Amino acid sequence: MSTQIPAQTQARATAGRPSFGRTVKNYVALTKPRVMELLLVVTVPAMILAQGGLPNLWLVLATLIGGAMSAGSAGAFNCYIDRDMDRKMKRTENRPLVTGEISDRNALIFSWVMGSLSVVWLALTTNLLAAALSAGAIFFYVVIYTIVLKRHSEQNIVWGGIAGCFPVLIGWAAVTGTLDWPAWVLFLVIFLWTPAHYWPLSMKYRNDYAAAGVPMLGVVRGRVTVGLQVILYTWATVAASLLLIPVAEMGWTYTVASLVFGGYFIVQAHRLYAHAIRGEAGKPMQVFHTANIYLSVISLVIAVDALLPF
User: Fold this and answer.
1) Which helix (H) or strand (E) holds 106?
2) Stretch 172-178: mean pLDDT, rounded?
3) I need a surface site. Which of 26, 39, 113, 295 has the fewest CB within 10 A?
4) How many angstroms separate the CA atoms of 141 and 137, rounded?
């Protein structure tokens, strides 16, 4: 069965070879830079907490480079595997494999090269545990989430989201060569945060996911069910973040910030649910952006708290 190619794809395909700058931009787009940025945000605080201060700056840079290649490889593999679905969704219609500005073959080669380099780089510049975790993150995102779960389970983002938890483990392992309890608490926070963050997005783009046949919770369940699940995972996320206080001996800076911003996150989740039970669409993207702000703030105060002398 043939897939109808959008008119803009045909137009670009006949427009001639793209410039070098445009080509670079397209390859960067394959790596899903916004997702990569979010993953790297949590890596540095994990390293600072593991060190109990500022780690060696070269080690931080090396870990970020390896982490960026790892996340970029996973994102590129995802774009390659999901290119048929991306052609059916408005939010992904400008991805380079949809427009034809990068060939399927080149995208696949790029994915393998980036993934292989990330593992080798981390093995040479950090340690074997960090390198193994990088390989595990790529495998989990590409195989478990993209291939196995995404098209077949409404819980896809819950278990597939484990891939997004690996950066804190990679950062911790790069510093200590081990995985201690605080690293696993950070892992748990991101694991619980992921559905609370992503399901509001699936509510916003429900029609897109439905058109592509992706059984996101926002597609297969009503707003009330999704809203309730967002509440439950938001409360669980905030509770997990508080576990870091005794486990990692966090100070008042982290304690106050996690309570204040966690409370705000919970309020936004309850507002979304309140709209849902009244039969209203509400503002799911407000919850989505709040979740991003929450994780960024928590990451920042983890680093600040670890650097303070009290």
Assistant:
1) helix 104-125
2) 96
3) 113
4) 6
